[in-house]
Design goal:
The protein starts with a strand and ends with a strand. It is globular, with a radius of gyration of 22 Å. It has a 7-stranded mixed beta sheet, sandwiched between helices. A 6-stranded mixed beta sheet has the order 3-2-1-6-10-9, with helices on both faces. It has 2 domains: 233 residues, ATPase, nucleotide binding domain (Nucleotidyltransferase, domain 5); 187 residues, 2-Layer Sandwich (Nucleotidyltransferase, domain 5). By secondary structure, it is an alpha+beta fold. A hairpin with a 2-residue loop joins strand 2 and strand 3. It is 37% helix and 19% strand.
């Protein structure tokens, strides 16, 4: 009789984290969430930081819950960690933190961002070398600001680990840089062999000794340490970037031409390719050539995503607190009049405002549009605006790549928002196939199973997801 294999996915997002147990048995994968908790950065003396100790505590609580959720006598075989991109931990030679863990929305990068934007020749060289455009959250700009403000870091720091790498280090004791999360930094060379860019590191003043040769995203690192309930489990470096994991969960069929959309705090829109997009037009469009766990490319565009909605609802007392509340709000939003004008969602006003409602109102007023008065009208405005932004990226990618996409495959929290799904289909003019799964957690577990040798290929696992996950198709309306 076949024995089940249990894997624990640590899936940390910018607004919430979760620990999910995936069980592989008889060529079928089932998922069970055992722990979920809120996450948010905190502002201290004008700077934004992650509560990294609280995150680690929640990971430990969740992993204990994962082990306790199993039948008597069964054990967790492996643990994998994915997080959002770009943020990092700076460690000394003993593995101790020597600098606070900043949040990517912190304004410390603005000076470097503007400086690089005024130097198009250098920016073009960096893009050709790394495939990553000039974005306010880039690790390169964060690290440059840290070193510029605190020169002693060059002597104090021995390693720079992106956040999933850091949690892998806490779990296994091995400090390694995984390729998908490394590719978010704007410091990794664009060649198929993953090598840190010496010229780009020099430009930003970042010591190359802080990094090691990136490893593939399904590499076993060693036994889990310090977690009695996980005795015998191995830490596996899954694709550390949650978007790379979410893309691994996409139920792709043979011969299909799909554009991928991972919908959460950010909308990550892109596709998989054997080659990057490195033209001047791709740079101008802000296309980021990130990596898969296998080292191939994921040309991708970041759209601000449900951060708009999450921020807006903080300004309303009557915000939904359960599934029934969300269903009612979305229904009210669907019945609201079509907005007279959509948001330009790339407006810097929306990056980290004190009040999202005030930011939206200011944005509309500046454009001569009267702001809404009811929460449902704001929700309609946001969903329609995000749908239009998703469609604009589709048009960009078809023009830049020469491909024709037949449909949009969507995973993540946004799949539960039928207004957003329909708005995207209507604006794009092609169907949206919404796969109601936690994409990052699913992809995380898929890569663990590959690392354990329990399954033969990513293609086979995607076929499994395709036949076992509910998929709702939204056809474009005239």
């Amino acid at each position: 009789m076949a024995q089940p294999i249990h894997c624990a996915a640590v899936d940390l997002g910018a607004t919430s984290g979760r620990i999910v147990v995936g069980t592989w048995l008889n060529h079928g994968l089932t998922l069970r969430e055992v722990h979920r908790f809120p996450n948010a950065f905190r502002t201290l003396n004008g700077s934004d930081y992650w509560e990294i100790g609280d995150l680690w505590h929640e990971v430990q609580v969740g992993l204990a819950a994962a082990a306790a959720a199993l039948p008597t006598g069964e054990k967790i075989a492996s643990v994998g960690v994915d997080t959002w991109g770009v943020d990092h931990a700076l460690l000394d030679r003993r593995g101790q933190l020597v600098f606070p863990v900043h949040a990517y929305r912190d304004a410390r990068t603005q000076r470097g961002l503007k400086r690089l934007a005024r130097d198009p020749r250098t920016l073009a060289k960096i893009y050709a070398d790394t495939g990553i455009p000039n974005l306010f959250y880039n690790s390169s700009l964060q690290l440059a600001a840290a070193v510029e403000g605190h020169p002693a870091l060059k002597e104090l720091v021995a390693r720079c680990l992106l956040l999933p790498d850091y949690f892998n280090f806490l779990l296994s004791g091995r400090a390694a840089n995984e390729i998908s999360i490394a590719s978010t930094t704007q410091l990794l060379g664009i060649g198929r062999k993953p090598v840190w860019s010496a010229t780009t590191l020099k430009h930003f003043g970042v010591p190359s000794a802080w990094f090691r040769q990136p490893i593939r995203g399904q590499t076993p690192l060693g036994p889990v340490r310090g977690q009695a309930a996980l005795a015998g489990a191995v830490t596996i470096a899954v694709p550390g970037h949650d978007t790379a994991c979410a893309y691994d969960a996409m139920p792709v069929g043979a011969g299909e031409s799909n554009l991928y959309l991972s919908s959460g705090t950010w909308s990550l829109v892109g596709f998989e390719s054997d080659t990057p997009l490195l033209t001047p037009d791709a740079l101008a469009a802000g296309i980021a050539n990130e990596r898969t766990g296998d080292g191939t490319y994921r040309p991708l565009k970041n759209v601000i995503g449900l951060w708009l909605l999450e921020g807006l609802l903080k300004d309303f007392d009557a915000r939904p607190t359960d599934a029934a509340g969300w269903k009612k709000l979305i229904a009210e939003a669907e019945g609201s009049p079509k907005p007279p004008q959509l948001l330009a969602v790339a407006d810097a006003l929306f990056v980290n405002p004190r009040s999202m409602r005030e930011a939206i109102d200011a944005h509309l007023t500046k454009r001569g549009v009267k702001p809404p008065t009811k929460v449902a009208a704001y929700v309609r405005l946001i969903c329609d605006s995000l749908g239009a932004a998703h469609a604009a990226v589709l048009t960009q990618f078809e023009r830049l790549s020469g491909r024709k996409f037949d449909r949009i495959l969507m995973v993540g929290g946004g799949t539960k928002n039928r207004l957003l799904c329909q708005a995207t289909a209507d604006a794009a003019g092609i169907p949206v196939a919404a796969c109601e799964i936690e994409g990052a957690a699913t992809g995380n577990i898929v890569r663990q199973l590959l690392g354990l040798g329990a399954v033969e290929s990513l293609t086979a696992m995607r076929a499994n997801v395709r036949t076992s996950v509910p998929i709702r198709v939204y056809a474009p309306r005239d």
